[in-house]
Each structure stands twice: as structure tokens, then as C-alpha cells.
Design brief:
By secondary structure, the chain is mainly α. The chain has a domain of 82 residues: Arc Repressor Mutant, subunit A, CATH 1.10.10. It has five helices and three strands, in the order H-H-E-H-H-E-E-H. The protein has a three-stranded antiparallel beta sheet with strand order 1-3-2. Helix 1 packs across helix 2 and helix 2 crosses helix 4. The longest helix is centred in the last third of the chain and has 31 residues. The radius of gyration is 19 Å and the shape is elongated.
């Protein structure tokens, strides 16, 4: 389960417009060696579809490794997930993203000033 410090971390990610499910998944995986979808669901209070959607974001950013583990008895193998990057690298990703957004905003403001003065 996520503690108060983890919740603060999630809130900080959310303040950067990171979706709640992605923020929860990143935080949970940063605190474990690896986890199944079911463990993630229980540890983050996310439903299975929310975990799947968040996992898609982590896959797109190449932040997660997944492997199949044979389930006991019959049935499909379980997927086990693990962060493949450090939490620092994820923070740097969001820092660069926000720096780029800020630079674009400042370029737009500068262009407005130029247009107004001409």
C-alpha cells in the first residue's frame, strides 16, 4: 500500500498534469522490485482497466519491463512488471517536458508583443 509520502509524490506528479492512474502506477512500481497487475491494483486502488491504460503510457515511454510468469494450474501466464528506468529519469522526462512547454509559451508571448508593436 502507498503511504503518505507516496501520496505526496502522486500529488506532485498530478500537479504536472500526469494522469492519476499513471502517477499511481509510477509511484507503486518505484517502491517494488516487480509486481503483477493484481498486486498493482490492490496496492494503488486502481481498477484493472486503469492499470492497463496507465501501463500503456509506461510502455510508450519505454519505462517498464514486462515478463510472463506461468500461473499456478491452468490459465494464461501472469504478466510481471518492473520499472526499467530510475525514478530520477522519469522526473527528468517531466522536467524537460515542462521546460519545453514553458519555452513555447514564452515564444508565443514574445510573438504577441512583436505583433502588437508593429
Amino acid at each position: 500500500m502507498l503511504d503518505e509520502k507516496d501520496q505526496e509524490f502522486i500529488d506532485a506528479l498530478r500537479s504536472l498534469n500526469v494522469p492519476r492512474n499513471v502517477a499511481g502506477l509510477i509511484t507503486y512500481l518505484a517502491n517494488t522490485n516487480d509486481a503483477t497487475s493484481r498486486q498493482i491494483e490492490m496496492g494503488t486502488n486502481l481498477r484493472q482497466p486503469e492499470v492497463s491504460i496507465a501501463m500503456r503510457t509506461l510502455r510508450q515511454n519505454n519505462w517498464v519491463n514486462e515478463r510472463d510468469v506461468k500461473a499456478e494450474g491452468k490459465g494464461r501466464p501472469m504478466k510481471v512488471y518492473k520499472l526499467r528506468v530510475t525514478i530520477q529519469e522519469i522526473i527528468q522526462h517531466y522536467e524537460a517536458e515542462k521546460n519545453n512547454e514553458a519555452a513555447e509559451t514564452m515564444r508565443s508571448i514574445q510573438r504577441l508583443k512583436e505583433l502588437k508593436s508593429s
